[in-house]
């Protein structure tokens, strides 16, 4: 495996009560590449993403990051390496500048400004109250907070959901910058045009099963809506 930030899913299943959310998934998500996870609503895409930084755990099977089982890594250290941007942003502090320092307390004012710029927010936002942000602004701040710790892997869940077209572009740009720096992106998206433009490989899930896996140009699923 070249570089770092590559995952191996080995016969991964997740069950909750009677429900089988993921069913014996095996796949390699290469380091330094963008893997997209697509499929209909309820297919298990968010569940799969949450396994990768251990917000959820597998019921059976195992996941390796750079050949080391996730269960052997310290969870907090793992989450610094693997940043997750979720559908519903959760902000933890009162001011935006504090929020960007959550995982990086030593971050200077210039770095705060640069991060805000990177996610398309003006420098004045540093002093804004997090409780007064719009949904799209909150998601950008969450992205900036994740970027602040310079994770090797960025997990992006449904980046277009709470966002207008402009900020969706910001998140896709951040994903591209991350890839250009040789880092890894795993992207859950319903936006097949975005997936075609950015993904190196695509996992297609349906009812918790991996029904296809290949390059975007190889997959019938991505022909839909073209
Ligand atoms: N704790 C749980 N117990 C039982 N079922 C659950 C639990 N969490 C999620 N599910 C179900 O598991 C399935 C997969 O959910 P998941 O959020 O991973 O789907 P998704 O592909 O991301 O969907 P969407 O595109 O709508 O966001 C859904 O049917 C969901 O209702």
UniProtKB/TrEMBL annotation:
Gene3D superfamilies from the UniProt entry: P-loop containing nucleotide triphosphate hydrolases (3.40.50.300)
InterPro entries cross-referenced by the UniProt entry: AAA+_ATPase, ABC_transporter-like_ATP-bd, ABC_transporter-like_CS, P-loop_NTPase
This protein's name: ATP-binding cassette domain-containing protein
Domain named ABC transporter: residues: 7-224
Keyword ATP-binding: yes
Gene Ontology MF term list: ATP binding
Keyword list, A-Z: ATP-binding, Nucleotide-binding, Translocase, Transport
The species this protein was found in: Amycolatopsis plumensis
């Amino acid at each position: 495996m070249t570089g770092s930030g590559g995952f191996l899913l080995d016969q991964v299943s997740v069950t909750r009560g009677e429900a089988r959310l993921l069913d014996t998934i095996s796949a390699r998500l290469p380091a330094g590449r963008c893997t997209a996870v697509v499929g209909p609503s309820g297919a298990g895409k968010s569940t799969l993403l949450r396994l990768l930084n251990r917000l959820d755990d597998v019921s059976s099977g195992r996941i390796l990051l750079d050949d080391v089982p996730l269960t052997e890594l310290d969870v907090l250290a793992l989450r610094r390496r693997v940043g997750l941007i979720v559908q519903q942003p959760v902000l933890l502090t009162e001011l935006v500048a504090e929020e960007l320092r959550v995982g990086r307390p030593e971050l200077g004012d210039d770095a705060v400004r640069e991060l805000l710029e990177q996610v398309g927010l003006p420098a004045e936002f540093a002093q804004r109250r997090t409780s007064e942000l719009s949904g799209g602004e909150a998601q950008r701040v969450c992205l900036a907070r994740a970027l602040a710790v310079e994770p090797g892997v960025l997990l992006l869940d449904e980046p277009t959901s709470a966002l207008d077209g402009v900020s969706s572009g910001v998140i896709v740009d951040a994903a591209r910058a991350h890839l250009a720096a040789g880092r890894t992106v795993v992207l859950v998206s319903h936006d097949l045009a975005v997936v075609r433009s950015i993904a190196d490989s695509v996992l297609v899930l349906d009812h918790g099963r991996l029904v296809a896996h290949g390059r975007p140009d190889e997959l019938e699923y991505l022909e839909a809506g073209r």
